Amino acid sequence: MTLHSEPTPNPGSRDDLREHLVRTRIAGDVATSRENNLDHYRSLANRDPHHMFGLTLGEGWSYRDVLDLMAKSAGVVADPAHREGLDTIDPDRTIDAVEAMGDVIAGVLRNAGARILVATGHPTGLLTVHLALARLARGCGATLLTPAEDWSYTGPRFGRRRKIRYLDDVAMLDDRGAFVHTHDPAPMEAMIEEMGQELPDLVIADHGWAGAAGEAGIPTVGFADSNDPALFVGEAEGKIAVTVPLDDNVLPRHYAPLTAHLVARVTSAL
């Protein structure tokens, strides 16, 4: 397949990427504290909607179950007695998940007329990765969907209306001209309602955008920080195809090597 997407940096070796992830704290000793991680694991175990990202969870996800899963899937410290200070993301788990995500994306792009939806709740960090994936998908002939543009609502955690807005076919939540961080699944739920029976072949997203899509049965891949366990639980339950563990809000330029590795994995698999 001939690609027409914009050029991305040449990927280095796996060892180069691992070193970069640790140096920039995308993985390794990350900025997210152990206290914050454990608090969010308890919140998910208590089924706090803010931390569920639009997913419904099966029985058995206690606090210890969530911690055990996050140790396995993201590489956080498994010892429940470690309650404060630093926590970790295993860079090899990040790279493995990036490659698995690339394989899923490539599998969809091999189908003529693939329909893909891209969205992010982290415009100050992960937007750069999503923009690159949207460009790649367009270059492979996929249709980038933009449902519910300008749909607006007042959510439970803010006092004024926000709306769905797209930048180069990547959906975000707009608050009076500013793209904002959000965990809320409501915007994706509005997209799904508008699309009706014409759902996408794949959603590439994070936070509630990914959770709501996975809950609706749409093939979904996503990115999640170590303090956002919902997508990892969704993956364990078969609702999310792949969840990539990483710090989701470092400087955007630091994601370039990871993005290059992901794009290379997709293109090599086509």
List descriptors:
single chain; 270 residues; alpha/beta; Rossmann fold; 9-stranded mixed sheet; two-stranded antiparallel sheet; 11 strands; disordered N terminus
Q: Please, could you describe this protein's structure?
A:
The chain is α/β, with parallel strands linked by helices. It has a domain at 14-22 and 89-224 and 234-269: Rossmann fold. The protein contains ten helices and eleven strands. The strands form two sheets. Strands 3, 4, 5, 6, 7, 8, 9, 10 and 11 form a nine-stranded mixed sheet that branches. Helix 2 crosses helix 4 (63-73), helix 5 (91-109) crosses helix 10 (256-269) and helix 6 runs parallel beside helix 10. The model is unreliable at 1-7 (pLDDT under 50).
Taking all Cα atoms into account, the compactness measure Rg is 17 Å
CATH A-level architecture of the domain at 14-22 and 89-224 and 234-269: 3-Layer(aba) Sandwich
Write down the CATH class of the domain at 14-22 and 89-224 and 234-269.
Alpha Beta
Order of helices and strands: HEHHHEHEHEEEEEHEHEHEH
Brief description of this entry?
The chain is of the alpha/beta class and 270 residues long. The protein contains ten helices and eleven strands.
Architecture blueprint of SSEs:
Layout: H1 14-23, E1 28-30, H2 34-45, H3 49-52, H4 63-73, E2 87-89, H5 91-109, E3 115-119, H6 127-139, E4 143-144, E5 152-153, E6 162-167, E7 170-175, E8 178-180, H7 186-195, E9 202-206, H8 207-215, E10 220-224, H9 230-236, E11 242-245, H10 256-269
Helix pairs in contact: 2-4, 5-10, 6-10, 7-8
Protein name: Phosphatase
